[in-house]
């Protein structure tokens, strides 16, 4: 129950029903400006868009931002987990839909290392996604009701921790979750994006790229991403690699390693490619007219004189899709160069899909792979903040459950593309 204008009004939180609620949820999504972290616009209850530049408090300036629009199945980001839910908030006697949140409970690796007191490397974790509150009904406790109900749902299904993602520039979202809900800033993955050009990118002749079938890919990642040293590695990794939206797991090696210095260790790189064009669309907002005109001119020049190989990019001011790279690993002295070749190969695969305009990866900032991934500044971001909360706090939780502490050196961070 809540109060507004001296009258008592009803706020009801219930589970989403596809046939009944789909149209209302889609309309709510359209009314909420959404950033890449999946939060709604700044409403005092969390939100904002990734890569928004700081605004001058004295004079508001229009700034560029990279926003996401969910398409298709509204449960796409959580449906992969056997236990998932979407909650909706209805307000007043008219039962107007004014809020929504998604949550899932999944089993992931803890990455606590050999000194962990736990006998298992995996733990049940809740993931809270897609919090939206109607712009006309903010600061009425709707976000609070949705988050609390989602946490209760996840706790009842055995989740030991809950996580959510936002951005450093979204002060309202951080304040809400770290203040009112007791979450702690946790990890800071970086988003590395690059537009898909009209022309193929070169792969050196000395590098050989081949594709692994899902069973071999799963075996390779079991060695490259040990759960004792990796955070958030999903227990269903083989299912992710075999998913219809995983376009393949690719490995790059030197074509003639025998010709190289025999004293050097062998080099290789590996990554997997996820097609997110069917579940979301990105769009650049707030771009100045001069930039729009310049990019349009480059596209026109490239169409008229393709032999010049002008690095034109698709129209990013209309909704476009992306391919996401995950499981990026490399080894050996040629590892960085081989990983760049794999990124070029992924770019060339993306060229075949007219709906794809960007190839991107989410990695930990201290991951050596981050320096090897080709990026474009305007499509990259270091503002992501993952926050975490112990759902069993106050019980017999041990010190080993303090996941918010800094990760041990060498710990890897896995970002699941299904939850992008």
Please summarize what this structure is.
The chain is of the alpha+beta class and 420 residues long. The protein has helices at 18-31, 142-156, 171-180, 214-224, 237-242, 289-304, 335-350, 369-372, and strands spanning 2-4, 7-9, 11-15, 65-70, 83-91, 96-109, 122-133, 161-167, 184-187, 190-195, 207-212, 230-231, 246-254, 268-275, 280-285, 321-331, 356-363, 384-390, 412-413.
Keyphrases for this structure?
single chain; 420 residues; alpha+beta; 8 helices; 19 strands; 30% strand
Tell me the quaternary state.
single chain
Measure the end-to-end span.
33 Å
Q: What low-confidence regions span 5 or more consecutive residues with pLDDT below 50? A: 1-6, 40-61
Helicity range: 10-25%
- Using only C-alpha atoms, the radius of gyration works out to 22 Å
Mean pLDDT over the residues: 85
Task: Count every beta strand, where a strand is a DSSP E run of 2 or more residues.
Answer: 19
Q: In what range is the share of β-strand residues?
A: 25-35%
**How can the largest sheet be summarized?**
7 strands, mixed
Strand order of the largest sheet: 3-5-6-7-8-18-9
Find the structural class using helix and strand composition.
alpha+beta
Give, in order, the helices and strands: EEEHEEEEHEHEEEHEHEEEHEHEHEE
**Shape estimate:** globular
Number of helices: 8
Structure notes:
The chain is α+β, with helices and mostly antiparallel strands and 420 residues long. Helix content is 22%, strand content 30%. It has eight helices and 19 strands. It has helices at 18-31, 142-156, 171-180, 214-224, 237-242, 289-304, 335-350, 369-372, and strands spanning 2-4, 7-9, 11-15, 65-70, 83-91, 96-109, 122-133, 161-167, 184-187, 190-195, 207-212, 230-231, 246-254, 268-275, 280-285, 321-331, 356-363, 384-390, 412-413. It has a seven-stranded mixed beta sheet, sandwiched between helices. Strands 10-17-16-14-13-11 form a six-stranded mixed beta sheet. A hairpin with a 4-residue loop joins strand 5 (83-91) and strand 6. The longest helix has 16 residues, at 289-304. It is globular, with a radius of gyration of 22 Å. Mean pLDDT is 85; it is low at 1-6 and 40-61.
């Amino acid at each position: 129950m809540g109060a507004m204008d001296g009258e008592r009004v009803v706020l009801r939180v219930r589970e989403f029903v596809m046939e009944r609620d789909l149209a209302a949820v889609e309309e709510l999504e359209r009314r909420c400006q959404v950033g890449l972290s999946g939060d709604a616009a700044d409403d005092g209850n969390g939100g904002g868009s990734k890569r928004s530049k700081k605004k001058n408090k004295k004079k508001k300036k229009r700034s560029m931002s990279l926003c996401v629009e969910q398409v298709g199945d509204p449960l796409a980001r959580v449906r992969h987990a056997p236990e998932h839910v979407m909650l909706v908030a209805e307000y007043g006697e008219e039962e107007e839909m004014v809020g929504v949140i998604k949550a899932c409970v999944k089993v992931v690796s803890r990455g606590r290392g050999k000194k962990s007191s736990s006998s298992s490397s995996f733990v049940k974790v809740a993931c809270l996604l897609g919090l939206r509150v109607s712009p006309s009904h903010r600061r009425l406790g709707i976000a609070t009701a949705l988050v609390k109900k989602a946490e209760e749902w996840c706790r009842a299904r055995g989740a030991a921790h809950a996580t959510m993602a936002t951005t450093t520039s979204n002060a309202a979202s951080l304040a809400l979750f770290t203040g009112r809900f007791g979450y702690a800033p946790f990890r800071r993955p970086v988003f590395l994006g690059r537009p898909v050009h009209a022309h193929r990118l070169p792969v050196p002749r000395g590098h050989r790229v081949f594709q692994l079938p899902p069973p071999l890919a799963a075996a390779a990642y079991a060695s490259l991403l040990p759960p004792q040293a990796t955070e958030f590695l999903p227990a269903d990794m083989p299912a992710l690699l075999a998913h219809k939206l995983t376009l393949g797991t690719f490995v790059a090696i030197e074509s003639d390693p025998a010709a190289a210095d025999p004293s050097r260790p062998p080099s290789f790189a590996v990554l997997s490619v996820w097609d997110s064009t069917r579940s979301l669309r990105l769009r650049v907002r707030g771009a100045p007219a001069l930039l729009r005109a310049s990019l349009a001119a480059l596209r026109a020049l490239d169409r008229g004189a393709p032999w010049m190989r002008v690095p034109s990019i698709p129209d990013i001011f209309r909704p476009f899709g992306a391919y996401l790279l995950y499981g990026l690993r490399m080894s050996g002295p040629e590892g960085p160069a081989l990983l760049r070749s794999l990124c070029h190969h992924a770019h060339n695969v993306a060229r075949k899909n007219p709906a794809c305009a960007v190839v991107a990866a989410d990695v930990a900032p201290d991951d050596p792979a981050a320096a090897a991934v080709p990026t474009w500044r305007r499509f990259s971001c270091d503002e992501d903040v993952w926050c975490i909360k112990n759902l069993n706090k106050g019980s017999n939780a041990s010190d080993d459950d303090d996941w918010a502490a800094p990760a041990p050196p060498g710990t890897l961070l896995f970002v699941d593309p299904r939850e992008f």
